[in-house]
Specification:
Largest interface: A-B, 22 and 23 residues
Oligomer: heterodimer
Distance between the termini of chain B: 40 Å
Strand content of chain A: over 45%
Helix content of chain A: under 10%
Distance between the termini of chain A: 37 Å
Strand order of the largest sheet of chain B: 1-3-8-7-6
Largest sheet of chain B: 5 strands, antiparallel
Number of strands of chain A: 11
Chain lengths: 115, 114
Amino acid sequence: GAVVSQHPSWVICKSGTSVKIECRSLDFQATTMFWYRQFPKQSLMLMATSNEGSKATYEQGVEKDKFLINHASLTLSTLTVTSAHPEDSSFYICSARDRVGNEQFFGPGTRLTVL
Amino acid sequence: QKEVEQNSGPLSVPEGAIASLNCTYSDRGSQSFFWYRQYSGKSPELIMSIYSNGDKEDGRFTAQLNKASQYVSLLIRDSQPSDSATYLCAPKGVRTGGSYIPTFGRGTSLIVHP
């Protein structure tokens, strides 16, 4: 099956710093990648959709200047949490879909803790 | 607004029993349906997909789809404690700006007790 990796798997940072999370599709070309956030015991919340070579489409309520998404290649998308605050502490998960677009495959997630 | 409804549970079943997880969706245009399993603290993993009305079996899992009723279900036979997780129903989603946007239910928490 398709494999999606994320790096780092966990990160602890100080308030006010920026954190970059990478999402890679290892054995297929991901024309579309999705970024989710999940707080404890809550459902997945879609943050944004990114298509390779295009600007990301953000969901309502998600600040695009705070959560910078880059999808520069068919195998890599990055999410940068800028000026992180404790309330940004969450589980960030990416998923990727190929050109056929039927299934999406999730990365293992990145747990962000902002002190 | 496109919606996916799942009973949040928890659904508690004894080991060896059949667990039945249900999902209804509002988008009549949905053609593809997926079930994901999410263990606590982990990301979702795809376990079943179904595209046609009827049943699709894969090992202990059976997905059932009824497009007329806008209903999809997942049956887990011979439930094991390791099946304890949250199960997410996901129609393929709606097309926006060229991409299909995934829609997920809130998930049903399944507990299989020994």
